[in-house]
Amino acid sequence: MIGLRRIVIGGALAWGAVAVAWAASASDMQKLAESQGCFSCHAINHKKVGPAYTAVAQRYAHNPNAAAILQDAILNGHQGTWGVIPMPAYAPDGYLNPHQALDLAKWILSLKPKP
């Protein structure tokens, strides 16, 4: 959503577009993951075919590029980090757009196990 905001520049008024950030709720992200079949291979707290989301969050907890790495894996598929079974790509057929994939990645990263 783009909003207009009045900005004062050197005494003159100017109108500029300001992007309004949208943050997806954890509930929305879990529903999106369910609708895309993510839970066929992943679970939040235990390994299935793929790793538990809490394990993914823990592995990438200190990586500043984690969200982008996971977004790429979601969109383009991935193999090797968690074993030989490949994760399919979710972008080629329009399953997820880059914004949805990034929101999912951020949600997964938020699922770090509590100490």
From TrEMBL:
Superkingdom, taxonomy of origin: Bacteria
Transmembrane segments: none
Domain Cytochrome c: 11-112
Record GO terms (molecular function): electron transfer activity; heme binding; iron ion binding
PTM: Binds 1 heme c group covalently per subunit.
Cited Pfam families: Cytochrom_C (PF00034)
Signal sequence segment: 1-23
Binding site for heme c: C38, H42, M87
Keywords linked to the UniProt accession: Electron transport, Heme, Iron, Metal-binding, Signal, Transport
Cited PROSITE patterns: CYTC (PS51007)
Record's protein name: Cytochrome c-551
Protein source organism: Thiomonas arsenitoxydans (strain DSM 22701 / CIP 110005 / 3As)
